[in-house]
Design a protein that fits this description.
Elements (H helix, E strand, L loop, with lengths): L33 H28 L1 E2 L23 E2 L36 E2 L13 H4 L5 H13 L2 E10 L5 E9 L2 H6 L16 E2 L1 H9 L19 E5 L8 E10 L2 E10 L4 H15 L1
Length: 298
């Protein structure tokens, strides 16, 4: 959902005006001199070469392009409030390790460093100290559970410590409009442990948001995607839409803070995205953040 800095090709039906040329209605345009034509052809050859090299570089680098505005499910306006993220690229895998969704990786295990799969902060963000990490980006179980209601932490901690948890990493930031985002990735020993994790669903009780409901606009996206494997519209290589669920706190009255929760099941990794904003979570940056994190995990 973020806007990519792209260069749009000029449609073939349109002409490109030459600097200094002023067409006159009804007047014949004189043919260019041979020397001028040679200069023009040389300029066009250099332009074509630059575009070819740029295209090749983009393909080799395997960056995850930030989606165009029209690629966001249900959103297509030109000024919709999305954030500008850096161009994303998946981290290098250990030698011989398969991709998480590769045909030779039926367990869908992520072999890349978990911090490399964590979504970076967008432009203009300031680090949020609420996500407590060590120097390697790891988050302790107790620090992660601070985002949950106190009464439910003990049970969740017991499950995490005895049901296959290997590692938690996280990142948090605050945007100029006051929107706070916390992103966590939890790596388990196997996909089955992720399926059994009960800390990210509509019944999750978050600190400050003990009641959640399905995000209505995301529900519409899920309902309109056909087929058993349903990729999110416009996104190749990410998670299926059935593996991404978005919830929100019922809309607050007045200017109270609202919380949104994004849950991503990706093989042996559980993604948790928590976003809060006074007067209500904005749909576009919330969906954008979750989709881009899905791209990194897919």
């Amino acid at each position: 959902m973020s806007e990519q800095n792209t260069t749009e090709a000029v449609p073939a039906a349109q002409s490109v005006p030459v600097a200094g040329a002023v067409p006159v209605a009804g007047a014949a345009v004189p043919a260019a001199a041979p020397e001028d034509r040679r200069k023009l052809f040389a300029a066009l050859r250099w332009t074509a070469a630059v575009l070819v090299f740029a295209a090749v570089g983009t393909g080799v680098t395997y960056g995850i392009a930030r989606p165009e505005r029209t690629d966001i499910p249900g959103l297509s306006t030109r000024d919709d409030g999305r954030w500008t993220y850096p161009t994303l690229a998946k981290p290098a895998l250990p030698a011989g390790a398969p991709l998480a969704k590769g045909p030779d990786n039926k367990a869908r295990t992520h072999y890349a460093p978990l911090t490399g799969l964590l979504l970076p902060a967008p432009e203009g963000a300031k680090p949020d100290g609420a996500v407590k990490t060590d120097k390697d980006g790891a988050v302790s179980v107790d620090a992660f559970l601070e985002d949950y209601v106190p009464d439910g932490r003990a049970k969740l901690k017991e499950v995490l410590e005895h049901e296959g948890l290997r590692q938690i990493v996280g990142r948090g930031w605050t945007m100029p409009d006051g929107t706070r985002t916390r992103v966590y990735l939890l790596r388990f020993h196997a996909e089955g442990f992720v399926d059994a994790f009960r800390g990210c669903n509509v019944n999750t009780q978050l600190a400050g948001a003990p009641v959640l409901e399905r995000d209505p606009s995301w529900r519409d996206v899920q309902d309109t995607q056909p087929g058993p494997e349903r990729p999110i519209a416009g996104y190749a290589g990410g998670l299926d839409v059935s593996e991404v669920n978005l919830y929100q706190e019922p809309r607050p009255a007045g200017g109270d803070e609202q919380t949104g929760l994004g849950c991503l099941r990706a093989g042996d990794v559980q993604g948790v995205v928590i976003q809060t904003r006074k007067s209500g979570v904005a749909t576009v940056p919330f969906h954008q953040t979750v989709i881009l994190q899905s791209q990194l995990l897919g």
